[in-house]
Structures are given as C-alpha cells and as structure tokens.
Design brief:
The protein is mainly alpha-helical and 150 residues long. It has four helices and no strands.
C-alpha cells in the first residue's frame, strides 16, 4: 500500500466520521428540543389548569370544615350543625361537584351516609344542579387536561 492510498483512506474515514458525528449531534439536539417542548407543554397545561386547581383546593377546605362540624355535633351549637349540613349539601350538589375528583365524590357520599343519609336525598332541582356540576367538571377535564381521578 502506498502513501497515496493510505492518505485517501484516511480522508474517507475522516469524512465518514465527520458525517456520523454530525448526524449524532443533530439527533441529540433534536431530542433535547423535543424534551424542551414537552416540558413547555406541561408547564402551559399546569398554568391553564391553575384556576381550576385553586378553586378545587378552596372548596375542598370548605368541605372539610363542614365535615368537621357535622362529624362532631356534640361540640357545636344546633345552628352551627345546621349551617354545616346546609353548606355540605350545597358543596355536594353544586360547587364541589364541579371540580372534585371522582374519589372525593365517593368519599363525600360515604361521609353523608355515615352521618346523615338524608343529606343525599335530593329534590329534582338539586339533582339537576348536581348533573350540571358534573357536566361542567367533564368540560373542565377536557378543556384543561385535568385528570378527573386526581
């Protein structure tokens, strides 16, 4: 093998190595850009859902406060218990039903069954309000990409 052949072989190997390195570099850059875009999408989705999640948190706290009063009636006045029952039902029928996770809904029903099954006796208007709240929740789930189970 002469020097000319070795030189050409080295040139070809150098070009091939350069192409391989360029392709690998391009692929790595494309991968990083895709990861960045996915992260940005997640951040935007969270920001879009933020009002929903903040309202959910506020109403969860209200439901918890009402539940605390309902479950400890011996330590409360009759008016406090009546007010808490009324607020619990309001949350169950409308406001909370609009944003609650499905597991929370089941736990609200379980609590009502434990302390006063009458809390679940809804008149036709209340049932319609509950159905409306669930339809709104389903819309939020779709529009804001919120997991209905969470």
């Amino acid at each position: 093998m002469n020097i000319d052949t070795v030189g050409k072989t080295v040139q070809v190997v150098s070009v091939v190595a350069g192409v391989v390195i360029s392709v690998l570099s391009f692929n790595e850059t494309a991968k990083k850009q895709a990861e960045t875009r996915l992260h940005e999408i997640e951040v935007r989705r969270f920001e879009a859902a933020k009002p929903f999640l903040e309202l959910r948190q506020k109403l969860y706290i209200e439901a918890l406060k009402a539940a605390a009063v309902i479950t400890t009636p011996e330590e409360r006045t009759k008016v406090e218990v009546q007010t808490a029952r009324r607020r619990f039902r309001e949350l169950y029928v409308a406001e909370l039903s609009m944003v609650e996770a499905t597991e929370v809904e089941a736990k609200m029903v379980a609590l009502a069954n434990a302390v006063d099954p009458g809390l679940l006796d809804l008149n036709p208007a209340q049932k319609a309000a509950l159905n409306l709240a669930h339809a709104l929740r389903d819309s939020f789930v779709i529009d804001w990409g919120v997991d209905p189970k969470r």
